[in-house]
Amino acid sequence: MGGFVDDYLAYLLARASHLISSEFHAVVQASGISLMEWRVMASLSGKDSLSINELASIVLAKQPTVTKLVGRMQEAGWVERCDAAYDKRQSLVSLTAAGRRKVQPLLKQAKAHEAQVVSALGEDAAHQLKLMLELMIAAHISD
Questions:
Q1: Of 107, 101, 94, 88, which Cα lies nearest the Cα of 38?
Q2: φ/ψ of residue 121, rounded to 5
Q3: What is the pLDDT of residues 22-65, one digit of tens each?
Q4: Contact 94, 79 (CB under 8 A)
Q5: Do 70 and 52 meet the contact criterion of CB atoms below 8 Å apart?
Q6: From CA 59, how far away is CA 36, in angstroms rounded?
Q7: How distant, in Å, are the alpha carbons of 18, 51, 129, 138, 142 from that of 55?
Q8: CA pair distance 35, 79, nearest whole angstrom
Q9: Strands laid side by side in the 79-84 sheet
Q10: DSSP letter string over 75-121?
């Protein structure tokens, strides 16, 4: 007979995330950036900009933590911050050319890692899993 967590969705999601993510953490750390810096740069990749609040939500951190992190990343030349045209109290963050150069190799390695992780599932099952996770996330996001 299985224990409670053996069939508990939140635990299974957390465990899968931890196992998969920790495999890639060594790659990120070897690149000379922190995991939070990676999360911010990966989140900004392919986007014009995101607000600090949007970034905080995506990288699963509190807004003050992300504000400080973005400040350090701005000093390193990886991101830039500007006031949002629609609200001067909002800061918009975007990658600089140096930030894009820094994160690009990691994005490729992340995609290769993802492909290796989902290879056991098959392409269709992996696609369905992503769709289901996106639906779950959308159903639980509160704005």
A1: 107
A2: -80, -30
A3: 989 989 999 999 999 999 999 999 999 999 999 999 999 999 99
A4: yes
A5: yes
A6: 7
A7: 20, 6, 24, 16, 15
A8: 16
A9: 50-51, 87-95, 79-84
A10: HHTSEEEEEETTEEEEEEEEE-HHHHHHHHHHHHHHHHHHHHHHTTT
Query: What's the Cα-to-Cα distance from 13 to each of 7, 10, 16, rounded to whole Å?
Result: 11, 5, 5
Q: What is the pLDDT of residues 62-114, one digit of tens each?
A: 999 999 999 999 999 999 998 877 777 788 999 999 999 999 999 999 999 99
The token pair that represents 91 in the structure block: 């800061």
Provide the β-strand partners of residue 52. none
User: Contact, 79 vs 93, CB < 8 A?
Assistant: yes
